[in-house]
Amino acid sequence: MNAEFPETPEAVARHYDFITPFYEIVGSRSLHYGYWPRGETGGSFGEAQQRFTDLLIHQLGSQQGQRVLDVGCGLGEPATRLARSTGCKVEGITISPSQAAQAEQWARLHDPSGQTKFHCADAMALPFPDGSFDAAWAVESMFHMPDHAKVLREVARVLRPGGRLLVADLVLSAEVTPREQSFLQHAFVARAFLTAETYPKLMSDAGFDVEQVLDVSANVMATFDAVAAAIQEKEAEVRRVYGDAFLSGVKDQWARISQSASRCMGYLVLTAKRRSR
């Protein structure tokens, strides 16, 4: 279940540098899945992404003046939304220098109070002192990491005792075949996907007490249909930025990803507290 592939941090950075404009076209600068309350459909993918950001902000429970680490900050929109809605201070890291620069530019425009900062850094070796954050979140970034356990230990190191951690991540089910697993890991530029059963123990071993494991698979998997619809709607813009060959390829690839993911992928939001050592 945890077969790994040789995607390096540099490869992940190159992937996002290339694909980020596509996700901005079909969605927003948040670069994560959307969220639809049970029984609801429709609306834009970008709106659903904002709903998911707001849910994660609520689950994290940060307060004014606290210092929060965003592990895998992307273009900085979720971090900026977190800071503005709670009054906390957020520092984000990304392996992509381009993303870090774009996040800083976004913050200058949308965070005039200076509550957010962004750095190009490796989650495997966080450039922060021990106990320097009150909370942290990792939103759809853990599956890119070469060593989940090492990243979790690093996050535990930089959190104060009692500090909160939220992880939002894709997981694989027992129904996945080796061929599907290989395809999905390459499609998502993932080093390894965990299972729902694996995550809580891994977090506990890293020094966290897991408080809640929230399965939001039924709420977020509509992302695949929403992105497919957005590709159709924004076809001309995708073609202008990437060309005909990319547009044709991404349609075919997305259909295959959707089919495999709907069969053997899920999505968890886990919240935990760092134990006192």
Automatic annotation (TrEMBL):
<dbReference type="Pfam" id="PF08241">
    <property type="entry name" value="Methyltransf_11"/>
</dbReference>
<feature type="domain" description="Polyketide synthase-like methyltransferase">
    <location>
        <begin position="22"/>
        <end position="274"/>
    </location>
</feature>
<dbReference type="GO" id="GO:0008168">
    <property type="term" value="F:methyltransferase activity"/>
</dbReference>
<keyword id="KW-0808">Transferase</keyword>
<dbReference type="GO" id="GO:0032259">
    <property type="term" value="P:methylation"/>
</dbReference>
<dbReference type="InterPro" id="IPR020803">
    <property type="entry name" value="MeTfrase_dom"/>
</dbReference>
<dbReference type="InterPro" id="IPR029063">
    <property type="entry name" value="SAM-dependent_MTases_sf"/>
</dbReference>
<keyword id="KW-0949">S-adenosyl-L-methionine</keyword>
<dbReference type="InterPro" id="IPR013216">
    <property type="entry name" value="Methyltransf_11"/>
</dbReference>
<protein>
    <submittedName>
        <fullName>Methyltransferase domain-containing protein</fullName>
    </submittedName>
</protein>
<keyword id="KW-0489">Methyltransferase</keyword>
<dbReference type="InterPro" id="IPR050447">
    <property type="entry name" value="Erg6_SMT_methyltransf"/>
</dbReference>
